[in-house]
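Researcher: Quick sanity check before group meeting.
Model: Go ahead. Protein one:
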Amino acid sequence: MLCCDVRGGVRRWLTLVSGMVECLCFSGAVFGWASLVVVLKSGGYFSSLCVNGTGLNGTAANGTQELDCSGQDQQLSLVFTIAAFVNNFLTLSNGFLFDHFGTTVSRLFGISLYTTGALFVAFSSPALSVLLYPALSCIAMGGIMLLITNMQVGNLFGSQRSTIITLYNGAFDSSSALFLVIKLMYESGVSLMVSFGSLAACSVIHLVRTFLLLPGGHIPYPLPPSYTYGVTCRKSEVFSPVTVDEAPPVQAKSFWKCVFSRLFMFQLLWLSVMQLRHYLFIGTLNPTLQRLAKEDPSLVSQYTNAFAITQLCGVLFAPWNGLIMDRQKSRPRAAGETESESDLRAAVLSLALTALLSVLFSVSASVPLLPLQYLTFILQVLSRSFLYGGNAAFISIAFPSVHFGKLYGLIMALSAVISLLQYPCTILIKVWLGGDPFWVNVALIVLCLTAFIHPVSVRLHCRKLASQRC
């Protein structure tokens, strides 16, 4: 019996650590786009869209015409826009797949997509630039599936559940630094074929972990006392989370009742406005840096590297959000207060703090000073790590766990539709505002302020529940 307990404990920690490494190294790579786009432009992708233009005086300083590559920038921005949209919108189908078919089937699907996307980039070329569209989309879809199947690991650790969920989301954010590694390797002479071919080969690691360190179904919450998964050293009752899903508690809300609740609607608003701010920042970072650096390629590369390096800090920042929630939850409950009410009360501070960080990031990003962008990068990764970790944690505590995959997928899908506004915003900046995003940034600051509606609403909801107990 002791042998089994020890092995079970070791397995839990191996599952936790290996899941964090997986998320940190692979899952959110697509959001390192700012680093990869430098490589793609250097390699000549979509270079056929560059046309001869003129400087302010009709000619460049050396008497030759300048090359206008705004068409190339727009095409590369569209690649990221579509990948970011796919990353969120198809999370809905990924959530349904996970809820209905379990971990193994979901991960096999995600791994196959990720491998396909990596191979598409590996075999792409300037003549086949169009391959970037399916490639980045497949990498995005496969990566989010790795995250979804890993977040359930938090269920193994009870009172630290929110901390682990946010930790994994922080690792997802930090994995965007993968494209920085590929950029640095490219500058050292390593081709995209070698880099992305190696990335595809790493799928073997994902497969091994799928079969050895994760259940075939789901990890239930609350965790049954005798729950086991993987290879065991004795015969025991293995709880199949699929069975748990097929027989939800009678008192659990229906899926559609959750969707049309005020909590879900305001959570969608909270997520969408801040996500749009982040996506537009990432998608336009390269041309913004070029404008602020006065087209100095060495400065653009320096700041791009700095941005990518700060993304690594996401895994350090995100757990603080979970710790805030878990610490708030650990406070003594009021008489008659349920665990669900305690969870909601604990989420208020997290929701408000995330909205505040997003507003500060938006203000900093709006100031057209190049050195200030270092602070902008820090605020961006801090805000983003709180945003996605907090979103996943809130969905897990505010609604029945039986609906987690579907609700998480739906809210990401709906927010993805709103995030499509980043592309017309990009066109607005380039065509109508002469490349100066100031007024768009001001509008986004105002939009981010609406995110404070959600924590206020949750606070009022908690007070209403408390008054009903009196």
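Researcher: Fine. The other one?
Model: Protein two, sequence then structure:
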Amino acid sequence: MPPAATTNLGYTPPDGGWGWAVVFGAFISIGFSYAFPKSLTIYFKEIQEYFDISYSQIAWVSSVMLASMYAGGPVSSILVNRYGSRPVVMVGGVMVSAAMVIASFGKTIIHLYLCVGVIGGFGLAFNLQPALTIIGTYFQVKRPMANGLAMTGSPVVLCTLAPLNQFLFDSFGWRGSFLILGSIVLNCCVAGSLMRPVNKNALPKPEAEPSECNGAAAEEAASVPSANLLTEKNQSESKSQGCMEKLVDFSLFRHRGFLIYLVGNVVMFFGFFAPVVFLAPYAKHLGIDEYSAAFLLSIFALVDMFIRPATGLLGNTKWVRPRIQYFFSFAVSYNGVCHLLCPLANGYVGLVIYAVFFGLAFGMVSALLFEVLMDLVGAHRFSSAVGLVTIIECGPVLLGPPLSGALVDYFGDYKYMYYACGVFMLVPGIFFFIMHYFNYKRLDEEQRQAEAVDMRTCEEAMELKTSPDDKTVHETDG
């Protein structure tokens, strides 16, 4: 087992115990957060015909929902820092349930945008961010594996909801289905009840250990070579900033690794969700029946389901974890290659093969997406980091599927949409490879400098300690 990354939590996380119940709760909460907007695409063709709207207009439903989920990140982060994960997740479940019930009475597409998109999206934000944050409080050594298992909730829920939604639509129509989905999503409240706060007083404090070669530890070691070197001015400044940092830590915008992650992800999210949103409509466009088209999502989700925990286990190994950012870079690039090759797939068998490879690629990125952020900034700053990331990413998340839908409307063919998404994924993948190479190189240099400063400080302290002793000896001899 690889050593744990250095954190400033002030206690040693249990890495088990009730933490596994928390992972199960996060599994459910994260599952609904990511799978719910994707599963609703089953209704898109029928809703599109019902309201007589274009591909681009119907794509706004899931796009607004995902964007609202990301835009609600900072609000969710503040609430988690103030009240903890449990009540926030439970409130989020109630919000999504109410949104689906109200949407079932919708008379216009704008009604769906507001209910499913805005209200439901904010409810999902209150489910996603707290679930991600609480894992970092319970796990340290086994954190990549715990994150991988929790992120597996998305494909498991999607694999269940995709055929269920098709059955509900055939039996009750899209309005009746929305009512039933409103009751199903209340399971998020059950998930939230499992998220008991960690008992920090009952846990031992961490012992002093040599710092790891990850982004958070190395950069902090470089910026603060020794805790004893803090001046009174720095201490007073940190006290004045304490209240603000409890809400949102804006100093992250001076963090090199955080900025690399943010820039790459902004580009990546223009092409991240659109291929999933349009997978079933693409199959129907090719003349494939509704159940077979929905089954493509189930195949995608089934592969995704197994690759996420496998990715977490692989990311937790001693060979991968010290340089886990490279693993993430490969996963992003692999996504881009899959989308570029998708138009070459012929018939239903070709789409099944694409769904398998896309499931592998999507699962790897999803399992690592927040783990690599925690690796860069540390668990103690993760809540603020994920809030800032999601509010900025809501732009490309909002615009990605509608822009892709506009390409379908303009060309009358899905292949150009998949080409565009492939480029949007491949370019940031290459960017991550290059920038993290220089970042790791710079972090290694900063760590060596920090160790040299610590060594000199120890030598100076020894000299100061021995000098009075020598002086006393000379006075005695005199």
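Researcher: One line on it for the slide.
Model: The radius of gyration is 25 Å.
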